[in-house]
Amino acid sequence: MKHKIILVGSGWATKGFLDKIDSSKYDIVVISKSTDFVYQHFLSEAVTCDKIETSFNLVQKYPFITFIENEVKHIDFTSKHINTVQSQENKDYDYLILAHGSIINDFNIKGMKENAFFLKDHHDAHCLFNKLGSLKDGAHIAIIGSGLTGTEIMGHLLDTHKYNIHVIDGLSKPLNSFSLDTSQYVMDIMLKNNISTYFNQFVKNIDSSTITTHVGQKINYDLAIWCGGIKIHPLSEKINKQLKIDNKFGIVVEKNLQVTHAKNVFACGDCAYSGYVPSAQVAYQQGEYLAKQFNSDFKKKKDFQFKNKGQVCYVGNKKAVYEKDGIRLDGTLGYIMMKCVKLYIKYF
Questions:
Q1: How many CB atoms sit inside 10 A of residue 51's CB?
Q2: Which of 40, 268, 279, 327 has the fewest Cβ atoms surrounding its Cβ within 10 A?
Q3: pLDDT surpasses 70 at 200
Q4: What is the pLDDT of residue 301?
């Protein structure tokens, strides 16, 4: 009789696991609110082009899984069963993998939820595309946060040649995870394209037409897009409380991704506090790692180690930036690298 693995979530960690697991050895159940896996890397482009494919159906791609479209309500780590929101029936497991990710962090800024658009999935991208389509040329678009997502949205908006763009960030520069040279390169693009920038300014509140920063700067807008970061998922908070783990960032795991104080339970991706900065790369590699551990019946006593494959960001006008281990490309070369990376992500 095959052991049952329950996977919670449908993101990059789940994809990494399902890509590599030997399904002949295990019964695999996936619990998630959606059957769709989302390519977050393509969402920024989908904001201005509705023909971009941003997702695929997990059940169609991985026919060996049993899919439960639901949310986890409670986990009994002693009896090894799960309760979901829409069912009274217990879901028993032999092994549990938590990969439910994180949620958007709006830092409880007054008016943010009511007035700004977010970009977490393809539904959000579709809503933003429709909103942009309803605006007149010359409309004012405020992008709050200039990390990867915010900067890529800026780049694709630049390509339309339609809007007045405002970039607001509490940090001192864009793409804070990149080198100073790359941040300056993006700053120069903003200056060249007459983008209004408000760095070192945290948003204090936002109403239906105006954003106010903590220094009193007021920015009028027609569309505001929040790209300000992520925070711990409520399910992770609940699990930490159950296991008496004090951590506000995620579920604490050992170097082999096993959850502290929980036998046969693992966590990976954004929901796990593993010492790595949350990213799709980390999540996917953690999923792959766990699959290989399961395939070997845990005979390979090897800790997870992340292998950085670089980071890339589109900045408009068929230009991009790419960095990996001190190697830096920008402009057309960066754009070519970005295209290669996205092809790899989608087809391999």
A1: 6
A2: 327
A3: yes
A4: 84
